[in-house]
Specification:
mainly alpha
């Protein structure tokens, strides 16, 4: 299970992917080309101006090119990969654990405001 600090929970997805892109010394257009998306779309994702999270395919590609664990990006984007959904639903212990953790994170987040 990932250790999620209060700071991590507040980190917007866009800031995270921009940080990873810059750490890997990739320009916006260069990263967009590798990800097979437009540079304006990647820019909107990074600035938080895009109202929807990217597709699972794009998140998997970001994880690969930015050399980061995919689950970090999926969590930041509030997405669960399709492959994992069936496993989570069928595994009662994991399902309960995720539910309890989501309640704890909600209490932490609401306590900061």
């Amino acid at each position: 299970m990932l250790n999620m600090s209060k700071k991590y929970c507040r980190t917007p997805f866009g800031k995270m992917i921009k940080k990873y892109r810059l750490e890997n010394k990739l320009g916006l257009r260069q990263a967009a080309k590798i990800l097979d998306i437009s540079a304006p779309y990647l820019c909107r994702l990074e600035t938080g101006d895009e109202p929807h999270a990217p597709s699972e395919r794009i998140i998997w590609k970001m994880a690969y090119i930015y050399k980061v664990e995919p689950q970090i990006l999926f969590i930041a984007a509030n997405k669960i990969p399709v492959e994992m959904k069936y496993y989570i639903i069928k595994n009662e212990e994991i399902f309960k654990g995720l539910f309890i953790n989501s309640l704890i994170l909600k209490q932490i987040y609401e306590g900061e405001q």
